[in-house]
Design goal:
625 residues; alpha/beta; Rossmann fold; Sec63 N-terminal domain-like fold; eight-stranded mixed sheet; seven-stranded mixed sheet
Amino acid sequence: MLYDRFQQEAIDYINQGHSVIVSAPTGSGKTAIAEYVISTCIQNKVGVVYTAPIKALSNQKFRDFENQFGENIGILTGDVSLNPSAPVLIMTTEIFRNKILDEPKSLEIYSWVIFDEVHYIDNPERGTVWEESLIFLPKHMNILALSATIPNIDKLAEWIQSIHNKQVKTVIEEKRPVPLHFFFQCQNEVVDNINNLKKLGAGRPNRMTNLINYIRQKEGLPCIYFVFGRRRAEELAMELYSYNFLTEKERQEILSLFDSLCERFDLKHERSAQTLYSLIQKGIAYHHAGMLPTLKEVIERLFTSRLLKVIFTTETFALGINMPSRTVIFDDLRKFYGRYMRTLKTRDFYQMAGRAGRRGQDLEGFVYCRVNPARINMEEVKRIIYGRPEEVRSQLNSSYATVLNLYEKYKEDIYKIYPLSLHYFQSKKYEQKEALRLIEAKLKLLTESGYIENGSLTQKGQFAKTVYGYELILSELYEQNILEQLDEFALGILAAAVVFEPRKNQRMPHLSKAARKVKRVCEEIHEKIKKLELKYRIYPLSKPTYFHLSSSIEGWLRGTNFDKILQFTDTDEGEVVRYFRMAIQILREIKDAEVASYVLKEKIKETIRVINRDIVDAEKQLREG
């Protein structure tokens, strides 16, 4: 295979036994380097771990690599375990971090770890997991880290070198193999020079159909249209209902493919699949996190078949999933970051824009930004597109489970761990001081609450160290013997409530007697936890339990079909599946706690078996795919 300059440079370093971080634009071919490491490890009969930031990406990589490398590939995510002793093991970064802390021996056969999308280290919710994986990485493992363009890649390498005492090479590629050409729709006109935006007359709203007509005339299809809201994706797709982008032959092909995929994934009678049918026969679709995972997969396959011409989608479509198109459209250049609406980060913009331009097919990719001068000024538009990508910054905030695992191993030396972090490496003195105070505060709370006694973890501490993210609420329930007393149904209700996060103004359904009882106990416990966290100035506060899915999961546990249980909630169907899968994951973590009783383990096994069926069964989706 003929490699590009940056790919060959990375491969040369790998052959010399070095760890490598690669920073290159989206769509430039970073995966080829990962494939080289995988095929070399298989030849040399050594193991390699491949970590990805989201389960959808882990699943896609499993399929891609299984096609290439056959039975050498396994996957381990919270809800899937296929061929888990394979020499090439794909997992989410959370699972990898947990293995490092809980069962490091299981990683002895793996010589390499590939961190895909390593810039995720500055994700506020989940960046800590990447950082901890790098801090505690077993000494015998080499790193291949792949990243979108980041300006401080050398500093990242310097930090890893400083804590692991081994050389980390950096490889930087600035150029895209397919250059991007930018256009702007403003006041309902399309221009390709940002400076001409100021000269356009005022007051005319941008019409989406005008833009699509323009792109169609310029032979710019297929096209990915990025929006920052699920409903918006569906509404815009419906706005194109009167269009038809397909020839009769293509229409027959796409419907035949759609039907066979719906058959395979058991979607024939799903209302959401039937709704999409009328759009798909015209070459149009939408794709977002609220959809059933199997239906999203069907849409992805239709898109890779090149028969879908316009897809309206949210930004997760840009994350690592290899689906390039000729054109990308941005519905807006502003989105919600956490709780605030703000302009897009340059790095996020290029993660999405990078889907434009298919290597080997297009000479250039086309990116259209819809600009509303009342919502965004031209300086901000210029900053997003022509500014320097943001540096990666640490978001370290270790969970109670991590603190307990480290305390068990290092005792009072736990405070020597923090100076190994990227946070310490990047931070000012007062930030370092506050981070250390937070670790100390968590240890004090854990000691006061009986997780640590006389320098050792108590039984409650042993339990808490295995349930990442929901430690305190579940451990208090465990200690008070409440988990033991719950039946299979109540355990399912509890698990769903622990993981669920309601959207703004979401309604709470009528709760059964069993759900009300669990809810009351959880609220009392959470109140005590909150008081302690406020006392020790620990933030963010532990998440409360939310019982919005109680009726749905009760119905599901009683064998009710999926369509029926959706009537008990205003949560999107894809989210319901996702939360049920997360509930399974947390139940597995409780079951795997060594201190959990045989009775509790058996009850949980049964709860998992009943939840994990039909559309919720993620393994089934992979096997049938």
